[in-house]
Amino acid sequence: MASAHPPIPLQEAFWNRWAVEAIGKGNEEISLRQARVITGWLRELGASDLDILEVGCGAGWFCPQLRPFGQVTGTDLSARQIDGAQQRFPDCRFVAGDFMSLELERERYDVVVTLEVLAHVADQPGFVARIAELLKPGGLLMLATQNRPVLERHNRISPPGAGQIRRWVDAEELRSLLIPRFDVIELKSVTPRANRGPMRLVNSRLLNRPVRALLGDRFEEFKERLGLGWTLMALARKRVG
């Protein structure tokens, strides 16, 4: 029977191309907000000796921000990106290959971080199970993924490229993926963004300027609480036993 998803070499070729084409495309706000949420969660732990795994680290840009909290290992399907990351960030360890089959030690990691990877894996329940396998009992998953209703209803998104898997989830779907193995501590949306329909006006920087001057960040936080953020972020603890 033919595979329902692109073979791994085709997926790797897509992400190698994406790494080049993504330069300067302007999603920095989304990525930086995800990073602030993750580092905020880590600061709350008050630890600097954690064993941290970042799954789907791409060019490795976030790994140095994780380093103050402990030892960091980054993985990505793209060997090209991993080679560059290891050269730029020698204080972290990097491993290239398919996360689902990489030889990584079971129950080694205190924290697994993964940013916008879930939507691009063929077997989402298996991906979550694999993360749980690598976490210590009581270890933490810190995950960011695209918020399907916001992307589908309020944004124009180019169709998937050759070799790209795209399976966005909504908040309840994400919760359902996590609860077989994790206790969900926090699940929220962040970074409201829209480029079509009425939400484009609601999120307009120009129109929001007087509202922001009056309310500060409270208007953005209100939209996030309504689930209007581009990103879903989950903090979850692996169950013990």
UniProtKB/TrEMBL annotation:
GO biological process: methylation
InterPro entries, A to Z: SAM-dependent_MTases_sf (IPR029063)
SUPFAM superfamilies with a match to the protein in the record: S-adenosyl-L-methionine-dependent methyltransferases
Gene3D superfamilies: Vaccinia Virus protein VP39
Any GO MF annotation of the entry: methyltransferase activity
Tagged with keyword Transcription: no
Keywords: Methyltransferase, Transferase
A Pfam family that the UniProt record links to this protein: Methyltransf_23
Name of this protein: Class I SAM-dependent methyltransferase
Species whose genome carries this gene: Neoaquamicrobium microcysteis
